[in-house]
Amino acid sequence: MASANRPWDYEVFLSFRGEDTRHNFTDHIYVTMDSLGIRTFRDDEELSRGEEIAPSLFTAIEKSRCALVILSERYAHSKWCLEELAKIMERRAEMGLIVYPVFYHVDPSDVRHQRDSYGEALAKHERRGFVERTQRWRAALTEVADLSGWHQQNG
C-alpha cells in the first residue's frame, strides 16, 4: 500500500489489451488486489483509433512500484499497449521498476521472437509508417519476454 514515505502512488500498474482480457482475467486480478488492499492502477478507458495515450497513463507508470504486463493474443496489435510497454521497460532500466510478465494464451517464445500474432502486428505497424517506434517496441517485447513471469495457458 502506498504511504507518505514511498515515492509511488500505486503498488501495481496493470498493462493489458482491453478487448482480450478486461472483462475476465484482468478484472479478476484487479478485484483480488483491491480486496487485499493493494493499490492498483488499471486504465478504464478504451481508446478509439487515432487517439493518443493520455499523459496520465505515463504518469501512473512513473508512480508505480511494479508493473504487471498481461501479454495476450492481440496485445501487440495495439500501438498504445506497445507504447505503455516501452515506457514500462524504460522505467525498469532507469528507475528499477519491477516488471512481471503474464503470458496469457501466448507462448513467451512467440513474444520474444515476434512470431505469429506478434510478428503480424509489428509488420502492420511498420507498414503504417511507425518504423522507428516499431524498433523500440520490438526491443521492449524481447526484453519483457526474457523476464521471469507466468505462462497462463488455460482459463
From TrEMBL:
Cellular compartment(s): Cytoplasm; Nucleus
The regions listed as transmembrane in this protein's record are none
The alphabetized UniProt keywords are: Cytoplasm, NAD, Nucleus
Q: InterPro entries of this UniProt entry?
A: TIR_dom (IPR000157), Toll_tir_struct_dom_sf (IPR035897)
Q: Which Gene3D superfamilies match?
A: Toll/interleukin-1 receptor homology (TIR) domain
According to the entry, every stretch annotated as the TIR domain falls at: 8-155
* NAD in keyword set: yes
> Which Gene Ontology CC terms are recorded?
cytoplasm; nucleus
A Pfam family hit? TIR
Q: Which domain of life is it from?
A: Eukaryota
The GO biological-process annotations, alphabetized, read as:
defense response to fungus; positive regulation of programmed cell death; signal transduction
Q: Which PROSITE patterns match?
A: TIR
User: What family is it from?
Assistant: Belongs to the disease resistance TIR-NB-LRR family.
Official protein name in the record: TMV resistance protein N
From what organism does this protein derive? Vitis vinifera (Grape)
Q: Which gene encodes it?
A: N_1
